[in-house]
Amino acid sequence: MTNHAVETPPTSAHLDPTIARRNRVAIVLLLAAVFVVFLNETTMNVAIPEIMGDLRITPSQGQWLTTAFALTMAVVIPITGFLLERLNTRPVFITAMSLFTLGTLIAATAPVFGVLILGRVVQATGTAIMMPLLMTTVLTLVPLSDRGRIMGRISIVMSVAPAIGPAVSGLILELAPWRGLFWVMLPISALMLLIGIARVPNVSEPRKVPLDVASVILSAFGFSGVVFGLSNLGLSAEGKAMLPSWIPLVIGGIALALFIWRQLVLQRRNQALLDLRTFRARSFTVSILFLVILMAVLFGVVILLPIYLEQGLGINTLTIGLTLLPGGLLMGLLGPIVGRVYDRFGPAPLVIPGSFIMSAAIWAMTLFTSNTELWYVLTTHVVLSLGLGLLFTPVFTTATNALPRHLYSHGSATIGTIQQVAGAAGTAAFIALLAVGTAASGATNAEVATPDQLIGGLHLAFLGGAFLSLLAVVAAFFVRRPVAPEISDEELEAPSMH
User: How many Cα atoms are found within 13 Å in the side-chain-facing hemisphere of 43?
Assistant: First the structure.
């Protein structure tokens, strides 16, 4: 039998100064890289309406700039569990940033929409590796008692980048075409790659683990089928679907079921691509369900707001970016406070009021019209950001604290996979509701919709998000802080293959 330890890292007071300095360097450089990839993601959101006009595509097609990115991450992230166990920290970092830089170059030189999508997919492949690498490194190096504080600092980076991204994007788009976004990002990502090659330390302990090719194939078909089916609903509403949505949904559902079954079999031998024993921890499971709701709402609202501001209210891209800036900065400022509150009091004082605030903000968005004042839009976005700022750090920290050391990489990969699939599904569902509502308002398709017809579609989409947010309010009452890993040694032991 194999004995998997469940101990947590030693406290910082017991670390050798050299090791402590190495750990700080690793976390700081990974945070900087995550800042770059998050900045890239949010600059694209503001540019989507301009890309739609330049490349003559509909909102349902334009959503693929976001959906393809998130879907690629969902397909690649399960493989990162294998990469993080098999390879050391530096080569994984170099691989991730190299792919991200290459994808940025492809997107910057894209002559048509298809090549732009390819660039986004390559970018997403690098991003998919970077996120679990950061989470696994933090879990490995930071003791349980300090994780709320560290997660709070991580949330600063993950919030400030989205906050300044739209403003930076708006400024660039005022001075250059949308391809300028990628030309600005290219030297930044290349610089991060060079710094990583020189400075990122190796802090993990690689071990030989097999890669199950069948699991990789099943996960790719499963996740892509489900999200493509949802995305296809928007095209169906416009009469431009390539095939009925139920076909990819059924194929994806069957592939996902087979993927889950195969992981349950392989994890008995510690050979699963994505070890699902993480779900034996109650706090992990509850937090994952909560995260599904949060990501679906967040991604949906994030893609709808720029469309509403530009096409519904006629706001220019720079003003859109500045409108979305205060909310993101607020989330960043809340990070350290939320982390300290979590370490002292647990998640309840944060997630319960946070879920009510988030839901109230989305219900307020259902009142948007073609005459809505900009201050009202800004206020609802700030309130939404306040709610989300109270939610994400406690949910992530609660989920990871419930896991033993042996399952850190699998837990990080699972969180990342669920996060991206839920985000892609939320984006697809919201855009589908937008298309259905626009058609119901009398527009033959979104390309020729009047502002009032478009806002009719937006109203339906925000209404769907508002009802979904009520589930988050219910889920908030079930989040509890784990005081130790919730999976015992016996549950992690597996028969040897030898």
Answer: 24
Burial of residue 248 (number of CB atoms within 10 Å: 0-12, 13-18, 19+) = buried
**What b/e readout covers 174-190, taking b as 16+ CB neighbours within 10 angstroms?**
eeeebbebbbbbbeebb
pLDDT tens-digit series, residues 382-427: 999 899 889 988 888 888 888 887 788 888 888 877 877 787 778 7
Query: In Å, how far from its chain's centre is CA 383?
Result: 20
Three-state secondary structure call for residue 141: helix
Angle, CA of 97, 9 and 29, to the nearest 5°? 25
Question: How far is the C-alpha of 359 from the C-alpha of 354, rounded, in Å?
Answer: 9
pLDDT in tens, 419-447: 777 877 787 788 878 888 887 777 665 55
Going 439 to 445 to 447 to 450, the CA torsion angle's sign is negative
Q: 133-160, pLDDT tens digit by residue? A: 887 788 777 777 677 777 777 777 766 7
Residues 6+ apart with CB under 8 A from 292: 418, 422
Closest residue by Cα to residue 480 from 361, 364, 351: 351
Q: What does DSSP assign to residue 9?
A: P
Instruction: For residues 270 and 406, give the distance between their C-alpha atoms in angstroms, rounded to a whole number.
Output: 10
**pLDDT tens digit sequence for 93-133:** 899 999 999 999 999 998 888 899 999 999 999 988 887 88
CA dist 438 and 455 (Å) reads 7
pTM score, whole prediction: 0.77
Angle among Cα 402, 403, 405 to the nearest 5 degrees reads 140
Q: Which of 342, 364, 353 is closest to 387 using CA atoms?
A: 353
- Kindly tell me the burial class for residue 17, based on how many C-beta atoms sit within 10 Å of its own C-beta (0-12, 13-18, 19 or more): exposed
Determine the Cα–Cα distance for residues 466 and 363; give it in Å rounded to an integer: 5
CB 451 within 8 A of CB 322: no
